[in-house]
C-alpha cells in the first residue's frame, strides 16, 4: 500500500464518518434506555401509588380499623358498640377490638400467614426474588416464629428473622434522623403547645381537636397522630405543618406501610401504660422528649430508661415494654414526639418488599376478594 497525502486524507475522512455514525447509534441507544427507564418509573408509580408524605391523606382516623397505636381509640370503641360490639376483648388493661377490619388488632393466624405469602409472591412476580431470603423465610415460618419467641420479645404481627435485637439502641444507628429531630426540638415543642391548648373539640369533651384518649388502667394517655398505621391524618397534618415538614426530611421514617406511625404522646401525672408488645421487629421507635418532669420512666425488656428534653430514645418496641408517670399533678404531663424508623439492619430491598406487602389496606383488600 502506497502512503500519500491523499490516502491519509481519505482514511481520516472515513474514520470521522465512522465516528459520526457511532455517535448516532450511541445516541439512539441512550434514548431507548431513557425511554425504558421512564416507562419503568411510570409503572412503579402507578402500582405503588403516591407516597403518603406526598399527599395520600385520609381525614379522621386511619382506614385500618381506626386503631391508634394498636390499641382501641375512642373511634374504634364507637364502632365496637355496633357491628363488632361482641368482639371487644380486654388484654393487659387495653381494649382490643378484634375486628376483621382492623389489621393490628386481629390475631395473627393461618389466614394472615397465607395473605402475607400471597402478597410476597405478587411482589416477586412484579419485581424480583433477589434479596428476599429473610423476608421469604419470615413469611413462610411466621406462625412458628411468633409462637416460639421468648416472652421478653414477641412481636404481635410480623417477625423478620436474623435481625440483631436489643431493648435499646444507640443514637448512632440512625444518626441523621436523630440529629434532625433534636435540632427540630424548639419547633416541635411550639407546635405541640399550639395544638394542646386549643379549646375542646365539642361540648362534654376535655380533649382538643385531633387528640385521642387511649385506654389505661390509671391516669390519662393522649395521642395526636400525624401518621397512623401508614396513613396520614389530613386534618392533624394541616394543624402541624412544621412537624410534617420534619417527617418529610427523615431518611428512615416508615411512611408507606402499616408499621409506620408519628404522633405527639402525652402522659398525665399518675398515668400507667401497662406491659405490651409492638407489632414487629423491623422498626425502631424513636421518642423525642418535649416535656419530661421527674418520676417518668420507660421500661423495655426489663431495662429502665428516662427521657430527656431535647434528646431522642431509640428502642425496639417488639420487646415487652411499659411507661409510667409517677409525678405530682403540679409537675405537668410527660410529652414526647414519637416516630417509627426502620431497623438499621433491614436492607433497602427488604424495605421495599415490606412496604408492598404491608401497604395500608392491601391485606384487608385481599381477604375481601
Characterize the structure shown.
The chain has a domain at 166-345: B-lactam Antibiotic, Isopenicillin N Synthase, Chain (Jelly Rolls), CATH 2.60.120. Helices cover 37% and strands 18% of the residues. It has helices at residues 5-48, 74-80, 110-126, 133-140, 142-148, 175-183, 185-196, 234-239, 241-249, 348-357, 362-368, and strands spanning 89-91, 94-96, 168-169, 212-214, 221-228, 231-232, 262-267, 272-276, 283-291, 296-300, 303-305, 312-315, 321-325, 334-342. A hairpin with a 6-residue loop joins strand 4 (212-214) and strand 5 (221-228). It is elongated, with a radius of gyration of 26 Å. Mean pLDDT is 80; it is low at 47-52 and 54-101.
* Backbone structural class: alpha+beta
SSE ordering: HHEEHHHEHHEEEHHEEEEEEEEHH
Please give the CATH class of the domain at 166-345.
Answer: Mainly Beta
Low-confidence stretches: 47-52, 54-101
